[in-house]
Design a protein that fits this description.
By secondary structure, this protein is an alpha/beta fold. The chain folds into two domains: 204 residues, Rossmann fold (3-Layer(aba) Sandwich); 87 residues, UDP-galactose 4-epimerase, domain 1. It has 13 helices and 13 strands. The strands form four sheets. A seven-stranded parallel β-sheet has the order 3-2-1-4-5-6-11, sandwiched between helices. Strands 7-10 form a two-stranded parallel sheet. Strand 1, helix 1 and strand 2 form a beta-alpha-beta unit. Helix 1 packs across helix 8, helix 7 runs parallel beside helix 10 and helix 7 crosses helix 12. The chain is globular and about 55 Å long.
């Protein structure tokens, strides 16, 4: 059984990736950000059979010693740890640089010096900013419209530089808007679904005009697995978009969710949920041709199929109880 490491393993995408890697027969060393409650995040909800193959390590990517201990002796590292909420990046930009730039530097240094065979670095479609051409290929200009996006772009550039300078075996995956069970209410889909599941028919949102390329989390986890296991000559040193190639506006998304949940929804605009005008990314839609041609990866779930599974998750009272549906989750 090969050993792999995952940073950010306790999070939304990270926990799904851990499940995927265990299903493939890997032993997973899962870094969870240290906290005094000994909370393991979403890993606590995984089945005992999955957790039998998971070693949970409390640590912090901002600390080089934590990272070195995590990755030593592994065959691949999946680096997902990041601060991700865009509104909070307006309030605490220094913490985003510490985690998303310096944290990534620590991972790159550990992989380089310990000679780990593969590093999968996580980027984000937010680094592109509002689409200048569609669909967005990996050659689209980088246009960072928030401190979060800028910090992620900084990590991306470090990854590129380490491959160029030291031949560090890094591949960058740039997922578009992932959604699914376990996602926090800082994202629009769980914000809508959780409010409806809690019995509300008047929901509170920000701008309804932006369009996004929404991809179900199981497809995202599969994209990570794919670039982590593909032959080195096909992926190392390259950046890959992962998305469906489709787009839907937030307003139309609300209508679709209402239809799937059997309710007519009224949307109330909340000013605190609206980004500054020049910071709002108005359109994102992926061109994932490069990833498909290099690895054969393709999404398996339609938007509706993914939404149905997400709705089922939030309708479970035990899951819904984990969320605060009556406040703005930054």
């Amino acid at each position: 059984m090969s050993s792999v490491a995952v940073t950010g393993a306790e999070g939304f995408i990270g926990s799904h990736l851990v499940e995927t890697l265990v299903a493939d027969g890997h032993h997973v060393r899962a870094m969870v950000q240290y906290n005094s409650f000994s909370s393991f995040g979403w890993l606590e909800t995984l089945s005992p059979e999955v957790l039998d193959s998971v070693e949970i390590v409390l640590g912090d990517v901002r600390d080089p010693g934590s990272v070195n201990g995590l990755v030593k002796g592994t065959e691949a590292v999946y680096h997902l740890a990041a601060l991700i909420a865009i509104p909070y990046s307006y309030r605490a930009p220094h913490s985003y640089v510490d985690t998303n730039v310096t944290g990534t530097l620590n991972v790159l240094e550990a992989v380089r010096h310990l000679e780990i065979p593969r590093l999968v670095h996580t980027s984000t479609s937010e680094t592109y900013g509002t689409a200048q051409t569609v669909p967005i290929t990996e050659d689209h200009p980088i246009n960072t419209q928030s401190p979060y996006a800028a910090s992620k772009a900084g990590g991306d550039r470090l990854a590129d530089s380490y491959h160029a300078s030291f031949e560090t075996p890094v591949v960058t995956l740039r997922p578009f808007n992932t959604f699914g069970p376990r996602q926090s209410m800082r994202a629009v889909i769980p914000t809508v679904i959780a409010q409806v599941a809690a019995g509300q028919t008047e929901i509170t949102l920000g701008d309804l005009r932006p369009t996004r390329d929404f991809m179900f989390v199981k497809d995202t986890a599969n994209a990570f697995r794919t670039v982590g296991t593909a032959p080195a000559e096909t992926v190392v040193g390259r950046t890959f978009n992962a998305g469906t190639g489709g787009e839907i506006s937030v307003g139309d998304l609300v209508t679709l969710v209402g239809k799937l949940m059997g309710v007519d929804l009224l949307v109330k605009e909340d000013e605190q949920r609206i980004r500054p005008t020049n910071s709002e990314v108005m359109r994102l839609v992926a061109d994932a041709t490069r990833l498909r041609e290099a690895t054969g990866w393709a999404p398996l779930f339609s938007l509706e199929q993914g939404l149905e599974q997400t709705i089922e998750f939030f309708r479970d009272p035990a899951n819904l109880a984990r969320y605060k549906t009556d406040i703005y989750n930054v």
